[in-house]
Design a protein that fits this description.
single chain; 152 residues; alpha+beta; two-stranded antiparallel sheet; 4 strands
Length: 152
């Protein structure tokens, strides 16, 4: 029974909150690089909620456990080092959350907190690993392309 509850929490709470925190990292990176318009989207499908916070447009879609991204529309083209910084901020935020969750887990050893920690640790690793599937690419792939100036 505990496994079913943890699976439910993973799908409907841990994953969406973790993805949101990861995307907020990209959005904050874009803010620091003075990007004019930032769109943060969580999920796919029909829009359930739209709003704006600190000049960041936020959209939450019906199927919010899959697919999240941050889009930036600037008044000027970003330099590669700015793009690398923005790409790194998502995994950095996931890493910060993983670290904080680990500290909480040490103080309060609960399986749900440990699962939350592991999911965010996984987000760090999987997002820094360079890969591309169809049109979707990891932060690591974006960074690899920018550092090694590949045109793919």
């Amino acid at each position: 029974m505990n496994s079913i509850i943890n699976l439910f929490l993973l799908i409907f709470f841990i994953a969406p909150v973790s993805l949101l925190f990861h995307e907020i990292g990209h959005a904050i990176g874009a803010k620091w690089m003075k990007v004019a318009t930032i769109r943060l989207t969580i999920g796919i499908g029909k829009t359930m909620w739209e709003g704006s916070l600190l000049n960041i447009q936020i959209t939450i879609k019906k199927v919010f456990v899959f697919n999240s991204f941050t889009a930036m529309i600037g008044e000027r083209p970003l330099q590669n080092k700015e793009k690398v910084f923005i790409s790194l901020m998502g995994p950095i935020f996931s890493g910060i959350l993983a670290f904080l969750l680990y500290l909480i887990y040490i103080a309060v050893p609960m399986s749900t907190i440990y699962l939350f920690y592991l999911f965010n640790l996984w987000l760090v690793v999987i997002n820094l690993f360079p890969f591309k599937i169809g049109q979707k690419q990891s932060d690591g792939y974006t960074i690899y392309k920018l550092l090694f100036k590949t045109n793919e």
